[in-house]
Design goal:
alpha+beta, 2 domains, 4-stranded antiparallel β-sheet, globular, binds iron/sulfur cluster
């Protein structure tokens, strides 16, 4: 009888070893498919080591073996419980609250970059903001975005990015348009469902709806023909949509392929926003698309309030399944819509507090290492957009290293979603997941080589 119990114990022990080893083997297969070669090596070693240890103990008979097996099995069960029980010791306060003062689009770095020296607009801006002139001279002294003189110049990807930007220019005059005279009677729930499903068909990763709030809007236009115009958007709703950026292209950051990919997804998200806005106008309601370079609002803030994610350490929207590896566009409208739920994503904030991988990898040291600070009635991490943009103007691309190393940016598949579930579920798992991410992918993962068809 005692012998039988011992045999069962021995078999259970080996079975657990096989399960753990298989998990590492599964990780190995996924890592091969994802071309994550460091993770392939680590999973291989862990898989072989685990099965060897468990098999050796299983086969080797020694004194007090049943007791040792019971102790080892208890430790394993305890570890699993500690990792997977929904323990939340200290969750960060839920996100930022509402900014009190609106941002002026003229102050953002992209608007300042569009100022042409010697023009009235240029002189007026720096007359009113003399403290910014010296700082901005730094990026003006660099070759500039997509310049052939920039350090990551590569003719094909730069030409492709240019083509995307040229097409975005074609879209811009269509962000607004004529509204059909006949107003259709619509049901808020039905039309919301329609837009969400159509959006999915068109290629969006996620769509959410929020009330359009004052703090979403810039105070004044900072780009294009309407420079300096006060923004008076009175729409009631904002539809935020995200588009996935290709993982392999993002992994090559900060080389030319990253700007090729980001402009591609600005184009795709902008096209879909235009389609949705046009669709709504055809139903007899007002709608305006907010696309790259033609914004009246701050997209990440809208997307956050539409339940699509949280604002992370690098200042971008962190979606629960793709992290920052998305581009956003928005449609504001008056058509009746159903508001989206806003899940509690404070686990993302807690993970960002301990992770700091983007701050470590940032070549211009523009991402803060400290905790969130209160500015303009909001609790947030504020990146140094000037040093970041100066780096962009030096290398010629929009860098994206922060996005490419972020643990949330891993592909949207079972393995990574299971880890994301653990991260959202448990304070302890978050700490464990970070150690594992560093082990499998490196603390500062290397930039990938360009795909063969480009290099
Ligand atoms: S890299 Fe880490 S700290 Fe940075 S945004 Fe991603 S999860 Fe947050
Ligand atoms: S884009 Fe590059 S330079 Fe800018 S914050 Fe991210 S890593 Fe730093």
């Amino acid at each position: 009888m005692v012998l039988l119990k011992y045999d069962i114990l021995n078999i259970i022990f080996l079975s657990i070893g096989i399960i753990i080893s298989s998990i590492f083997f599964y990780t190995l297969i996924i890592s091969i498919l994802e071309k994550e070669y460091r993770a392939v090596k680590v999973s291989f070693l862990l898989s072989i080591t685990t099965i060897s240890i468990f098999l050796t103990i299983h086969l080797y008979n020694f004194k007090h073996k049943p007791i040792v097996l019971i102790i080892l099995l208890s430790i394993i069960i305890l570890l699993v419980l500690i990792l997977f029980l929904p323990i939340q010791f200290k969750l960060s306060p839920k996100s930022i609250s509402s900014p009190q003062q609106k941002h002026d689009e003229r102050d953002i770095i992209f608007s300042r970059n569009e100022l042409i020296p010697e023009t009235e607009r240029f002189k007026n801006y720096y007359k009113n903001n003399p403290e910014k002139e010296l700082i901005d001279n730094k990026f003006r002294s660099k070759p500039g975005l997509l310049s052939p003189k920039s350090s990551f110049y590569e003719p094909f990807s730069y030409a492709a990015a240019h083509a995307n930007l040229q097409l975005i220019e074609v879209l811009k005059p269509h962000i607004n348009g004529e509204i059909a005279e006949k107003k259709q009677t619509v049901d808020a729930s039905k039309i919301t469902n329609y837009i969400k499903n159509w959006g999915k068909l068109l290629g969006t990763h996620s769509i959410g709806i929020t009330q359009l709030k004052e703090h979403h809007l810039y105070s004044h236009k900072g780009r294009g023909n309407t420079y300096g115009k006060a923004i008076t958007n009175s729409h009631h709703y904002a539809i935020a949509l995200t588009i996935e950026m290709n993982n392999e292209m993002v992994k090559t950051a900060p080389q030319g392929t990253i700007i090729m990919e980001s402009t591609q997804q600005y184009l795709s998200s902008g096209t879909i926003a235009l389609q949705i806005a046009g669709f709504i106008r055809n139903l007899g309601y007002s709608a305006q698309a907010h696309i790259d370079g033609s914004y009246e609002l701050i997209c990440p803030l809208v997307a956050k309030d539409a339940g699509l994610g949280e604002i992370g350490r690098m200042g971008l929207l962190m979606t629960p399944k793709l992290g920052p590896r998305v581009r956003i566009a928005v449609v504001t409208t008056d058509i009746p819509l159903e508001l989206s739920k806003t899940p509690d994503y404070s686990s993302i904030i807690d993970f960002c507090r301990i992770c700091k991988k983007c701050a470590d990898a940032c070549p211009s040291r523009s991402i803060p290492f400290n905790d969130r600070e209160k500015t303009n009635n909001t609790l947030r991490w504020k990146i140094n957009s000037e040093s970041c943009f100066t780096y962009w103007c030096t290398i010629g691309t929009d860098c994206g290293r922060c996005m490419s190393v972020c643990p949330y940016s891993h592909p949207n598949n079972f393995l990574h979603n299971f880890i994301r579930f653990g991260i959202a579920n448990s304070y302890i798992f978050r700490r464990f997941a970070l150690i594992m991410d560093d082990l499998f992918y490196g603390r500062k993962p290397k930039s990938w080589k360009l795909p063969k068809w480009i290099s």
